[in-house]
Amino acid sequence: MVVSSKTLDSAFNAAPASASSTEPDAVSKFMDELRGRGIEYLRFELPDLHGVSRLKVVPIDKVEGYARQGLNFYGGTLALDTSSLVVPGSGYHEERKFKDHLIFPDFSTLTPVPWLEKTAKVICDPIDYSGEPLEVAPRYVLKGVLQEASNMGFEVMMGHEFEFYLLNGETHEPLFGGCQIFNHLRSQFNPDIDTIVRQLQQSNIDIITYNCEHAPSQFEINYGPAIGVTAADKAFTFKNAVKEISHRLGYLATFMTKPYPDKSGSCCHFHISLWNSDGANLFLDPSDEFGLSATAKSFIEGILTHARGLMPMIGPTPNCYRRLKPHTFAPSKVSWGIEDRSSMVRVKATHDDRTHLEIRAASGLSNPYLTAAGVLAAGLLGVKQQLALRAAGDCPGEENPEFPWLPQSLSEALDSLATDAEMMQMLGEPFVQLFTKVKRFELDRFDRHITEWERNEYMEVY
After folding, report:
1. How far is CA 143 from each of CA 128, 151, 155, 278, 440, rounded to the nearest angstrom?
2. In sequence order, which residues have a C-beta less than 8 Å from that of residue 187 and are 6 or more positions away?
3. Whether the predicted model's global pTM rises above the 0.85 cut
4. Tens-place pLDDT, residues 105-131
5. Which residues of 325-345 are buried (b: 16+ CB within 10 A; e: fewer)?
6. Which residues neighbour 65 within 8 Å (Cβ) at sequence distance 6 or greater?
7. DSSP 349-403
8. Residue 179 reports pLDDT greater than 80
9. How far apart are the first and last CA of the chain?
């Protein structure tokens, strides 16, 4: 099958100048680069609805054909739930006779896979056989919101900061006990942690710090921010690499939000700021008391105004809401504050170009593309409407009686998204429809599950 030039334009729209889609030999140059690096296998990776990598491995002699014409992929991949179950009525399975779509590589995402011999990866975008992009794909959703930001004159600087547990691969238990954040022994307790970090660096992840976190066997590995979709691509590569490297070393790395009821949850602290094309941070106003511009204040208020509808994007499973409790260094209210670790929006008011926002409500298991798209969409709505920022108050955000509670469940959060017409428009109604259908399907399975707690509590007494 020969794919239209429109399809190729869509597939290559993020390619660097050296592999621009306007050049007739873009694929040939890409192939030369692969061979120059000694690559023998290329992984075509599609970020799914949950931020998990779905891939096919292609030998080098077959890459060029798939790069030009697309690699066939199951067309309902984006409508599978967290257990890879087919979600009936989603519009992407039986309604389309379970047909395939194509995925095309974004050449700019070429990354080594250092734990595999002579292997690299590219992130791909899905295209229907008609030549139309599958715009419900999370990467496309983020690109759409980034385009809206660009239309408003903004470049978007973003960074995802993840926590995760590194566990025994067989027992799924922590490697050590105690709660000693930053402790020197626990931060490098196992030499394999250093191996993970080195292989991340070899995967083009620019590590800046790493340390143990609050809970036993909980870690945080931080890397630098980036502009636009590159930031989410880096987060996608980071999370999937951590899991894969850890597995090959005999461990389980989990970004699950709350794996243990008596231990800390794992978050994704999401950092964001808006810049102009001249390299100026548009969140900074040196004349303001807090160093915040009117744009920054409206952006914050946009997040607060749409916080409840935003939550499914950053807390996409029932387990996520077990983390959002008072006095846990996780936000429980729709709140903001200057350097306030208890608030949903923590303002890093440095009075210089480092000024930015840290969104603290996102879960460690959240899809980095949807976290970025949701937060940016909400903030841009605030800027568009020039919303005035509500007062933060003098107490921690979680103690402020003026601030409403965040949704206490995924079901409540999905209900909030369904009534937020502006957020649905920004994210795209077809995407919201698909996302909601999949999440409601998962919730139904969750609600039908009988827990061990219920059996222990009720079986004998009743």
Report:
1. 18, 12, 12, 21, 25
2. 193, 210, 211, 212
3. yes
4. 999 999 999 999 999 999 999 999 999
5. eeebebbbbbbbbeebebbbb
6. none
7. --SSTT-EEEE---BTTS-HHHHHHHHHHHHHHHHHTTPPPPP--SS-GGG-TTS
8. no
9. 64
| C-alpha to C-alpha distances, 265 to 190, 198, 362, 364, nearest whole angstrom | 22, 26, 11, 8
Domain 5-132 listed as CATH 3.10.20.70: yes
**Do 144-448 and 5-132 have the same topology in CATH?**
no
| Nearest-angstrom CA–CA distance, 268 and 359 | 8
d(CA 316, CA 108): 29
DSSP 450: P
Tokens representing 65? 């054909």
Residue 320 above 50 pLDDT?
yes
Domain boundaries defined on the chain? 5-132, 144-448
Structure tokens of 300?
A: 């914050």
Number of H helices, E strands in the chain: 14, 15
Contact status, residue 384 vs residue 289, Cβ threshold 8 Å: no
Q: Which residue type, as a one-letter code, is found at position 152?
A: M
Q: From 3.40.50.300, 3.90.980.10, 3.30.590.10, 3.90.480.20, which CATH number describes the 144-448 domain?
A: 3.30.590.10
